[in-house]
């Protein structure tokens, strides 16, 4: 019974309980795809049905991760896809803290998107932050919650993703030459400007921008637009 409630797996040669980072990354990728599909459905089709189901799954999944990750659905799906890969073990305690942060974000989103559906810019921003965190973990094995855990504890936790807690010296292949650094910075600047230009230089010229503007509006703003349309139609009928 004690082993049932024990958090993480006991692996020989590791002095603390650990989890499989490959499994966690695969699960993050699966959830990112789900969140992206929900965003696309909301923006392009104007429906939040998929998002409501996904947010419900997301909240339950992260709650199970915090209680006992052995039974979290997304982690089990991730395990299926990486079952033939050599495990990469990371400390369970920092992953639990990171997933607890995800759970804290998930349940308010569940209430405001499923129970009391009231989309607004803040809620959309929270969804985008969740997507960014999932993407960073899936693509780069960067666990921001784990880093926050380290700052709170004021010392690096053991067995971080990619071995960043134990690595003190970078290999030559991990370092940037001045030319590589300049190209990287320029790439980031161009990407940021491209995103800015897309949303500001092309106002209302794409369906995506139009949908995003509507999605960002409050109920009061949407009601004012509807009232203005009704008034315009009423005046047109008078003529």
UniProtKB/TrEMBL annotation:
Domain of life: Bacteria
Transmembrane segments: 26-50, 97-114, 126-152, 179-199
All copies of domain DUF4395, residue ranges: 20-154
Keyword Membrane listed: yes
UniProt keyword terms in alphabetical order: Membrane, Transmembrane, Transmembrane helix
Coiled-coil region(s): none
InterPro entries: DUF4395
Keyword field contains Transmembrane: yes
Pfam family, one: DUF4395
Protein name according to UniProt: DUF4395 domain-containing protein
Species annotation: Sulfurimonas paralvinellae
